[in-house]
Amino acid sequence: MESVRSDAAAQAGDSALTVKILVAGGFGVGKTTLVSAVSEIRPLRTEEALTEKSIGIDDTTAVASKTTTTVAMDFGRITLPNGLVLFVFGTPGQDRFWFMWDELAKGALGAVVLVDTRRLADCFASVDYFERRGVPFIIGVNRFDGAGRHTHDQVRDALDLSPEIPVIDCDVRDREDAKRVLITLVEHIMRTMSSSRQAVTY
Predict the structure, then answer these.
(1) Does the keyword Nucleotide-binding apply (predicted)?
(2) What CA–CA distance (Å, rounded) separates 74 from 160?
(3) Which of 86, 130, 153, 192 is the most exposed place for a label (fewest CB within 10 A)?
(4) Residue 52 has what DSSP assignment?
């Protein structure tokens, strides 16, 4: 983790060995749940109740029990076994809050894009955002009750992903499973940084 640690410290301006990452994806895909599951501190949430004004704007068909929505960000913190501290920021999922993304993405070394296979199209914008900015990301396929099972290759093909981008299954309600998602992202960031350095060397 040394390469990630030193780069993260430079980003943070101190020796705290911290890494800022984002959790993105469509509306109701589990971003707030993941941040809450892994955070070792009381997570910061900026949720507001869904009202009748959101009818026709927020599609709750697949998440009928959802009653709130993130309007700015979620924030949590987790310390990995090697001492690396992750600052985890959850992004808002609806189009009307995307003006927040550029601010949240400043200094972020990577991202998790959560997907619901019942509505894969909802994560296209997140994938495109990180691809265009060259931010390393992984895909976390959140296992929703009633969602069909798809292979990683099927998900990869549907999202038109490069072969090196990890795709993993997860249940973000489970702390250990959610933590595994973040560790997978950190490992992917390390590989991406290593490849970039080798390309510059050659």
Answers:
(1) yes
(2) 28
(3) 153
(4) G
DSSP per-residue string spanning 95-151: GGGGGGHHHHHTT--EEEEEE-GGGGGGGHHHHHHHHHHT--EEEEEE--TTPPP--
Judge contact between 144 and 173, C-beta under 8 A. no
Q: H or E stretch including 31?
A: helix 31-38
pLDDT in tens, 178-198: 999 999 999 999 999 988 777
Among the listed residues 134, 102, 104, the one whose alpha carbon sits nearest the alpha carbon of residue 31: 104
| 3-state class (DSSP) for residue 50 | coil
Q: Residue 27 — very low, low, confident or very high, per pLDDT cuts 50/70/90?
A: confident
Q: State whether residue 71 is helix, strand or coil.
A: strand
Residues contacting residue 37 through CB under 8 Å, at least 6 positions apart: 172, 173, 174, 175, 178
